[in-house]
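Reopening closed ticket. The problem is back. First fold of the pair:
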Amino acid sequence: MISLVRYLAADVLRGQRFLAPMLVFLGVMGMLFAYDPGPQLSAYSGSAALIYPICAWLAVVVATSEDVVRREITVVSAGGWARVLTAVAATTVLFGLVVAVVATVWAVVASPRPYTFGEFLAGLGAHGVCALLGVGVGLLFARPVFDAIGRTVLAVFAVVVFTYPLGRWTPLGWVLDALGHNQITPSILWAGVIGGALVAAAVVAGVRRA
């Protein structure tokens, strides 16, 4: 499994399609923290909200990095769709965690307000939860659930766009609400559980659809 994850990660990096979401992420982060973003935890709310669509985008990139023929070869070589989709999920989560770490450290470096280690860990956890939610959404509609990239993009875009207006009715809203009030609540943990469940459900749905 580790070698399969390494292969998928190397393939994504070689294809360079990850550059588009990463450049958007870095550009928006630069704007968010160009000035004093406010109290420590509430400053994380903007970057946490950003990580959600970025990780959904990255999930689609990882899931579709290989063309149909190469993916079939990978499936045969790896021993089935279950192993491949599990590796795709693991690879995407790893990319998401990297984005979460960058966002958390960025605030500490760019903000004029000092961060305690506890606030840093809280921010890292919140960013990680939002990354999981994004990965889950992206993989739920990626190949092999949807074979056409156009349908995948439209479905992921629609879910991401409609998540924000629903506010506290969504796990993402729980995280952003807690950060916006400069506090950490158990709802963030529950959002993380739901994010993990989404990723697992995406793997199961993909295996059944394949």
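Second fold of the pair, where the issue appears:
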Amino acid sequence: MQRMLIMRHGEAAPGFPDHARQLTPRGVQEAEAMTNWLAQRVAKGELPMPRLYASPYVRAQQTAQVLCDALGIGLETLDFITPDDAPATVGNWLLEQAEGAPIMLVSHMPLVGNLAGWLVKGSRAQGVGFPTAAIAELKAEVWAAGCAQLLSFTQPSQLASR
């Protein structure tokens, strides 16, 4: 079974153009909280160190950089994981990836919700709502429509109570 983490970027300030919007101070805190949670899971052996990919949009890059800095991992940018890209495009890319470390994508709504819905339910119309900085963890034998299982869904507001 392969594992994947799908993360929405932290809270971003409004603005134009959309691709240049930056994280708010709260968005940085959200990214840091989720990174600390992931780092603890990696340290405990619950999760192998992921391979990290992010949208080219500023807010996703900023969120991913928090992960890179804390986990000591590299970052690759994927131009096809922006807000309105198609889940099937991401699915085709996933099928080309070698098995191994979990893949972690840092992207945007509606793509993150549509992708999770497409992989788990087989339809992006049944997408998942993602609060900012939330992470969905999935597993699958193959990354195709309706073939994944949602293992967990964690958001920053849940971590304060843990």
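Update: turned out to be a display glitch only; the data is intact. The mean pLDDT is 94. The chain has five helices and six strands. Please close again.
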